[in-house]
Write a structure and sequence with these properties.
This protein has two domains: 14-135 and 262-350, FAD/NAD(P)-binding domain (3-Layer(bba) Sandwich); 138-259, FAD/NAD(P)-binding domain. The chain has 352 residues and is an alpha/beta fold. 37% of the residues are buried. It is elongated, with a radius of gyration of 22 Å. Helix 1 runs parallel beside helix 3 (75-86), helix 1 (26-37) packs across helix 6 (310-328) and helix 4 packs across helix 5. It has seven helices and 24 strands. The strands form seven sheets. It has a five-stranded parallel β-sheet with strand order 6-3-2-10-23, with helices on one face. Strands 12-19-13-14-15 form a five-stranded parallel β-sheet, covered by helices on one side. A four-stranded mixed β-sheet has the order 1-9-8-7, with no helix packed on it.
């Protein structure tokens, strides 16, 4: 993507900011912009390894036709343009992390902890998590639970953790191909397994993978994984079934399985806000939830007449930002300004 995530954070650190945005889809990204206009800082948490949410993960190349003034745009290009738009505001991104706990600090602010130990404190939370958290689909392999988190993984949180590993990577989408290419320089060996010779990944990635296979730097097998072999959660090999060779065992110490993603509500369900039909109830003045200081925008927000459209989420982002202002700057009067006439706003947007 053209825009740089200049403030992508390392996991496990402690931070303090004005607003914590849960979800880096289009609504979460545009919320950074609307907050930035009001001089409000933001940190953004997303379980995916890149911004864009459903746009980037599910339909990066499909056309979106209902963004105002844009006749057609892909999910990937929309994400890229949003990242370019918010770059002056210096939002800090916590990618490959999930918000798992929420509590109050002694001074009344919110504290979120992620599954990787990152803590962020802010007076405002904005939930922009779409339909929920993307969760990996577990492979239908007997006994896989025993190995999860030790030698079977569904995402790459830290690339260096796979250095020197004898890897089997399973899958035929972008994640499988991208990590095959990215881990090849540091892994001891990589065997890519997919059930058919065709891929759902970007053609350039497929070509690069095939070039590595032709030179022997990786191995590619058309096969199904049928079993895992090892003890105490440590893999020794995976069993595969191939049309050409029948049952085969592939020695390995680590399996990366990319079998797709599914949407689940996740830990947000425990945040104490009111739900209606698995979505979060909000007002339509500020898009605040039943819990003061916690807002919700995008597909997760529920109110009469709600339409699950990106353009609706953009509208919700603007009103949320104005509601958040009074928590971030208590007692300060909010002066409404237009970007077309305010030199201060124009300078803020153009500031790099």
């Amino acid at each position: 993507m053209a825009a740089r995530l200049v403030n992508s954070a390392s996991p496990g650190e402690a931070h303090e900011t004005d607003v914590i945005i849960i979800g880096a889809g289009p609504c979460g990204l545009f919320a950074v912009f609307e907050l930035g206009l009001l001089n409000i800082r933001a940190h953004v948490i997303d379980i995916l390894d890149k911004p864009g949410g459903q746009c980037a993960e599910l339909y990066p190349e499909k056309p979106i036709l209902d963004i105002p003034a844009i006749k057609t745009i892909t999910g990937e290009d929309l994400t890229r343009q949003l990242l370019n738009q918010i770059e002056p505001f210096g939002a800090v991104f916590h990618l490959n992390e999930m918000a798992v706990t929420l509590d109050k600090t002694a001074d009344g602010k919110w504290r979120i902890m992620t599954d990787l130990g990152t803590t962020i404190v802010a007076p405002v939370i904005c939930i922009a998590a779409g339909g929920g958290s993307f969760q990996p689909k577990k492979p239908p392999i007997p006994g896989v639970d025993e190995y999860e988190g030790r030698s079977v993984f569904y995402a790459v949180r830290q690339r260096d953790a796979f250095a020197g590993k004898n890897l089997v990577i399973a899958g035929g989408g972008d994640s499988a191909l991208d990590w095959t290419l990215n881990l090849e320089p540091i892994a001891e060996k990589i065997t890519l397994i997919h059930r058919r010779p065709d891929f759902r990944a970007a053609p350039d990635s497929v070509d690069k993978m095939k070039a590595l296979a032709e030179t022997g730097r990786i191995e590619f097998r058309v096969a199904q994984i049928t079993g895992l072999n090892g003890e105490n959660g440590e893999l020794v090999s995976v069993a595969i079934e191939t049309d050409a060779d029948g049952a085969v065992e592939i020695p390995c110490d680590t399996l990366l399985a990319f079998y797709g993603l599914t949407m689940k509500l996740g830990p947000i369900a425990e945040f104490g806000v009111d739900f209606t039909e698995n979505r979060i109830a909000v007002d339509t003045e500020k898009f605040e939830t039943s819990v003061p200081g916690i807002f919700c925008i995008g597909d997760m927000a529920s109110y009469p007449g709600k339409l699950k459209l990106i353009l609706s989420g953009f509208h919700e982002s603007a009103l949320m930002a104005h509601g958040a202002f009074h928590y971030v700057f208590p007692g300060k009067k909010l002066k409404f300004q237009h970007t077309t006439s305010s030199r201060a706003l124009q300078a803020r947007v153009s500031d790099t």
